[in-house]
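Before relying on records like the one below, remember that each one covers exactly one chain. Contacts with other chains, cofactors or solvent are not represented anywhere in the record.
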Amino acid sequence: MPAAAQPRRTRLVRALAAAGTGVAVLALPLIGATSASAATGTTATAATTTAGYANNLDGWIRESLAIMAEKHIPGTYNGIYRNIIRESSGNPNAINLWDSNAAKGIPSKGLLQVIDPTFNAYHVAGTSFNIYDPVANITAACNYAAARYGSIDNVFGAY
């Protein structure tokens, strides 16, 4: 197969092998630097939370449900998930800068789009005081929804 028709990686590996070990050592950091995390300067997130749940949407919901069960806050996985997807598409750093709350200077934040006063009033002991913390945001929002609507399961729109 002509060099032009070979996949780029095959040509690179052959070029490194032909060039010798000294060049390969110099080239390896360049290969690694093409990954998204290295290119952006971000670090990989932990695979699990400090409580041992997966550090992703599923794990955050499950950890929140465990805390909610201890604190007798009603809610189900499906109710939480449905509201998260509608409010933030699962982005724990989501912030709404255009609605009436934002116009008043208190934008909705996090997975369940909670404003600071609501988060502070319904914060659940044992969770972070950071509104962007996924577990703290979910748990506070569910605590608020329980007080106002009986459960997050009863919320089907902006709340």
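The CA atoms of residues 6 and 71 lie 61 Å apart.
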